[in-house]
Amino acid sequence: MRSIQAALFLFLVSVSSSLAQEESKYDYISSYGEQGHSSFALVRKENRYGLIDRQGKEILSPEYDKIYRFGESGGNWAKLQKEGLYGFIDRSGSVVVKPIYDRIYSFGEKSSNWAMIEQNGLYGFLDRTGEEVVSPIYSSIGSFTYNGAAWARVQRSGLYGFIDRAGKEVVPTSYQRIGSFGSIGTDWAKVEQNGLNGFIDRSGKEIVPPRYTSVSSFGTIANHWARVEQNGLYGVIDRKGKEVITPKYERIYDFGNRGASNLAMVRRSGMFGLIDKTGREVVPAIYDKIGYFDRQNSDWALIEKDGKFGFIDKSGKVVVPVAMTDLSSSFHELSDHFSSRGTHIGNIGPVKKYWVSDFVGKYALIKSKKTWQLGVINKDFDVVVPVEYKRILVDQAGSIHVWK
Predict the structure, then answer these.
(1) pLDDT for 59-81, tens place per residue?
(2) Does residue 335 form part of some domain?
(3) Is 215 contained in some domain?
(4) Which of 247, 270, 289 is the last residue of a domain?
(5) Domains of the chain: total
(6) What distance in Å separates the CA atoms of residue 182 and residue 192, rounded to the nearest whole number?
(7) How far apart, in whole angstroms, are the C-alpha atoms of residue 268 and residue 252?
(8) Residue 386 neighbours by CB distance under 10 Å
(9) Percent helix, strand, coil in the chain (nearest 5)?
């Protein structure tokens, strides 16, 4: 019995002596478990930190600026800092990532299984084994699923591309800008390179090479087209990326802009024409003006060339040759032609109620000040067309054409 008591006494003396030696070895010893590991305690010596186990064995020598709690960075490891650089130790206390990074973000912050790293101002990724799955070569890395893709947008030397979840660069960093997938009326994303625009698809393939100064969203002028600009001229591409209309117009208006849903007005060299929904020029761009359908006739639009007028129908066919003259270029008081302001013309009333145009040939227009409707008088001031029309034109033969 006495021998057992003597042995126990010697053991307690030995442990007490060991603990006393450990306490004198370090400036500070934390409680066990304080760092998120029940078997380890943090120790400090000359403002450097390490770890010891419950037997006082030094698991990690005190040479680090800081040791973070286990699990604090989104995994089972603990982040450590040495000379301003960061790495990781595992739960056995082994260094699994050497402290060589300027910063290590938490696991899951950008990707569920990776932690972003920063080195010399550039970014990459570590996986949960500590392997560099993406080398720190990028000046910025976005979140995965950014821009509507399952990828992360990366920037390198001021240019953008994409990496996938395996760390592979699926879109090279060659673009000044990459838009969101699906934001332009199709499943593609708009890209910009050297100030020119094109499109990539979700595989990263260039569907439309960057060659256009500007590209509109699909559906801007027609549901299946996007307007493109090149060298100051406009054309159209379809949803396959095919150039339906080469950029040759100064402007392409929306379909239905002139009152016909199947036609769009175009301007080339300052002249106007019409295209259909196949891109075919059904009315050549040779006219000074093209009016609206349904204004003078239910199916016609007024066209003007060199001061003469005609009509086209909704198929683009010229139904009235461009030979008519518009007399309504200017109006003045009809009463100026008479000595008495009470003079009447035919049965239409006092002249003071009307304006008159300049005479062209033997005809002039009169316009009601009340209804703005038009009629025609001859040089004898006889009313040859009653004042009840919206448009009146005279052709080369002197025939009068009227529209209500």
Answers:
(1) 999 999 999 999 999 889 999 99
(2) yes
(3) yes
(4) 247
(5) 2
(6) 16
(7) 9
(8) 15
(9) 10, 50, 40
321, two tokens = 């040759």
Q: Where does residue 8 rank: exposed (0-12), middle (13-18), buried (19+ CB within 10 A)?
A: exposed
H-run or E-run covering 378: strand 374-378
**What's the rounded Cα separation, in Å, for the pair 245 and 276?**
11
Contact of 161 with 173, CB cutoff 8 Å: yes
Domain of residue 347, residue span: 331-403
Element at 82 (helix H, strand E): strand 78-82
Residue 216 carries which side chain, given as an amino acid letter?
Answer: S
Given 215, 247, 279, the domain boundary residue is 247
Q: Which helix (H) or strand (E) holds 9?
A: helix 2-25
Is 98 domain-assigned?
Answer: no
Helix (H) or strand (E) segment spanning residue 24: helix 2-25
DSSP structure class, residue 220? S
Give every strand in the sheet of 383-389, ordered side by side. Answer: 331-333, 354-357, 363-368, 374-378, 383-389
The overall longest dimension of the chain from CA atoms, in Å, is: 153
Give 186-217 pLDDT, tens digit per residue: 889 999 999 999 999 999 999 999 999 999 98
Residue 2: the pLDDT is 52
User: Does residue 5 form part of some domain?
Assistant: no
Non-local CB neighbours of 193 within 8 Å, separated by 6+ positions: 174, 175, 176, 210
237 plus 336 within the same structural domain: no
DSSP codes of every residue in 260-329:
-TT-EEEEETTEEEEE-TTS-EEEEEEESEE--TTSSBTTEEEEEETTEEEEEETTS-EEEEEEEEE-TT
Pull the structure tokens for residue 272: 């106007």
Report CA-CA distances (Å) from 26 to 37, 50, 61, 359: 19, 10, 11, 114
> What average pLDDT does the structure give for the chain?
89
* Helices and strands in the chain, H and E counts: 1, 39
Q: For residue 3, give the H/E element and its range.
A: helix 2-25
